[in-house]
Write a structure and sequence with these properties.
The chain has 33 residues and is an all-alpha fold. It is 94% helix and 0% strand.
């Protein structure tokens, strides 16, 4: 129960950081133009 919940939170957190990396890289690319 607890392990499953922690794994789910970690999964969501990792997914969020991946999205943030994409957003940041897009901002950097548009700033360079």
């Amino acid at each position: 129960e607890r392990m499953y919940r922690d794994a789910k939170i970690t999964e969501i957190y990792e997914g969020t950081s991946e999205i943030q990396k994409v957003i940041i890289s897009k901002q950097v690319m548009s700033a360079k133009k």
